[in-house]
């Protein structure tokens, strides 16, 4: 009886361990005769991540566990060539809750009001902005299609994680999945484009972006674009080179 109980516990333990270890979705490698070259893949990535400096204004819905939510406004200036960011989060009435600059040399918080005054929150917010707007730092390791015919580009991150960039056949839905070294999803970003927008020569931006954070803390940011404008490449303080 004790042996059966022990075996039962062992089975449950093995099941839970297996459930906690996710795997990477298998990629169907393209036929060499029609495999895209490096330039084509670069254009594909650039269709999602701007190469020039822009200012974006979004209406943001922040949803936390327990169905707690708040409506906010976000203004972010991005400088992709330098991976530099200036971001402001404010209430709908214009009260600034958080303002910061992030460059390769410095991370400077100009203004912060509780509950946004945690250093972990501030750095996590900037990391999320980088994930949303900047192309992955890592190496493009694999590309092809998934079983559902979506195109996939897989990047290896310096910390051992991966980023999968997945594009629907009609190119209206783009998804970015950030996984840790155990292949567990940490962040999922979904971009919704108008029909045919990413085939345009002029820059077209997603009308909405949804970021879902899975761990260590859980929350969802739903960002609806209200304005996008090209800006001169004047960097935030600390990185004007």
Proportion of beta-strand residues: 35-45%
**Average pLDDT, to the nearest integer?**
84
What general outline do the C-alpha atoms trace?
globular
Spatial ordering of strands, largest sheet = 5-4-3-2-1-12-11-10-9-8-7-6
Count of individual beta strands: 12
The CATH architecture can be named as Clam
- The quaternary state of the protein chains shown equals single chain
CATH top-level class: Mainly Beta
How does this structure look, described?
The protein has 241 residues and is α+β, with helices and mostly antiparallel strands. The protein has a single domain, classed as outer membrane lipoprotein receptor (LolB), chain A (Clam). Helix content is 18%, strand content 40%. It has 3 helices and 12 strands. The protein has a 12-stranded antiparallel sheet with strand order 5-4-3-2-1-12-11-10-9-8-7-6, with helices on one face. The radius of gyration is 20 Å and the shape is globular. The termini are far apart. The model is unreliable at 1-21 (pLDDT under 50).
Please describe the topology of this protein.
Blueprint: H1 2-20, H2 38-46, E1 54-64, E2 68-79, E3 84-91, E4 96-102, E5 107-112, H3 119-133, E6 139-145, E7 151-156, E8 162-167, E9 173-179, E10 185-192, E11 208-213, E12 219-230
What can be said about this structure in brief?
The chain has 241 residues and is an alpha+beta fold. The protein is built from three helices and twelve strands. The protein is globular and about 55 Å long.
